[in-house]
Amino acid sequence: MEKNGYKSYEKLPLMLTVPNVAAVLGVNCMGFDKKVIAGAYELAYSERFPMLKVGSRIVIPKDKFLRRIEKRCGGEV
User: Phi and psi for 8 in degrees, rounded to 5?
Assistant: First the structure.
């Protein structure tokens, strides 16, 4: 996770943005590739993805995001 500035899961903010999630997952969301950005937002809107809408913003609670990763991978993060 060093490329995106996060050296551990503990350093992640409590509420993640879609670009934060993309960076943690190793997807470059900050570039100009509209397909990548659309893919990151598609993930956020997918069923059972732990996202909240705050006005027009999408935020993802860090603890729920990490639990989701753990559940999908069958191990502990």
Answer: -160, 165
